[in-house]
């Protein structure tokens, strides 16, 4: 299908798209006048039917990408899989699936089960049903499985939580609410931004000031995003956060200074648990903590 008009998502379950964008209609949504769609980047969500025009009279679920034939490719589950998030499908060994398209993350597919439910499935768990005559378009499932034969499911990245709500200012950004769960896939090219995936499988940029990690990144990377680079530092005095965007820390705690904050006298830091926030520079010293007691703490900058 093709977008007749641009649309800005008004909720976490909706897609943002521009006029002329190609979409795959998976099925009618529960709310009348809406479709459940996948965009060209593999992001899934609902779109208003008034903004989408089917390219032909084919049934819902026909794909607009070159990686699958009309209606998708049929496949069988080699192993059972339990969904790890809301954007994935749970299925049993032997279940029939329809592969709609390759997902943005290597080693995953956008698929539908026999009940019409759509979601992500790991390529390691499905095998394409044999076909006779004619060649398939694009990359086949079997080719991907050959590459991933001995590999586990694709790495998911670091888990994080939205400290504040954010409304996307561009097509490459994510809109999310305070408290939403996000997966940090990697650091973005622009400093201060993460490339993330939300709970519905949509990917985009999120400002690092709005996202806090659940814990420190795994040692050695493990396929996730690289640990943020910064300058080692320590807390000269204890500080109690005065807002949701600030850090609480004790005297002597190790910190990582990421950058100067926009407000003068403040630093953007990571604490010892991988949480990110603001800290007053009057309370922070670069390097290793020295021996001996520190003087009384000064007031934080206004």
TrEMBL record:
InterPro entries reported in the protein's UniProt record: Grb2-like, SH3-like_dom_sf, SH3_domain
Keyword DNA repair among UniProt keywords: no
Family annotation (SMART domains): SH3
Location of the SH3 domain: 1-57, 70-131, 155-216, 228-289
Region: Disordered, residue numbers: 272-302
Highest taxon in the source lineage: Eukaryota
Biased composition (Low complexity): 287-302
Entries under PANTHER family matching the protein: PROTEIN ENHANCER OF SEVENLESS 2B
Name this polypeptide is given: SH3 domain-containing protein
């Amino acid at each position: 299908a093709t977008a007749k008009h641009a649309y800005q998502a008004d909720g976490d379950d909706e897609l943002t798209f521009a006029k002329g964008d190609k979409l795959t209609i998976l099925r009618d949504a529960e709310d009348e006048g809406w479709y459940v769609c996948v965009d060209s980047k593999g992001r899934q969500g609902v779109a208003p039917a008034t903004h989408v025009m089917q390219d032909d009279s084919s049934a819902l679920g026909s794909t607009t990408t070159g990686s699958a034939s009309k209606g998708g490719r049929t496949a069988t589950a080699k192993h059972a899989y339990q969904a790890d998030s809301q954007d994935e499908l749970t299925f049993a060994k032997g279940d029939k699936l329809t592969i709609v398209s390759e997902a943005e993350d290597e080693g995953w597919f956008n698929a539908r089960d026999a009940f019409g439910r759509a979601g992500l499935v790991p390529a390691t768990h499905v095998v394409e049903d044999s076909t006779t005559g004619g060649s398939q378009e694009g990359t086949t499932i079997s080719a991907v499985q050959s590459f991933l034969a001995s590999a586990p499911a694709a790495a998911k990245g670091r888990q994080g939580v939205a400290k504040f709500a954010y409304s996307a200012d561009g097509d490459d950004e994510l809109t999310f609410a305070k408290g939403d769960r996000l997966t940090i896939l990697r650091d973005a090219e622009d400093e201060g931004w993460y490339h993330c995936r939300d709970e519905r499988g949509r990917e985009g940029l999120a400002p690092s000031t709005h996202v806090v990690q659940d814990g420190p990144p795994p040692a050695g990377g493990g396929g996730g995003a690289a640990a943020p680079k910064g300058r080692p530092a320590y807390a000269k005095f204890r500080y109690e956060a005065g807002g949701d965007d600030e850090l609480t820390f004790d005297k002597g705690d190790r910190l990582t200074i990421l950058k100067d904050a926009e407000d003068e006298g403040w630093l953007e830091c990571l604490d010892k648990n991988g949480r990110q926030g603001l800290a007053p520079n009057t309370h922070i010293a670069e390097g290793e903590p020295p021996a001996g007691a520190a003087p009384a703490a000064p007031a934080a900058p206004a």
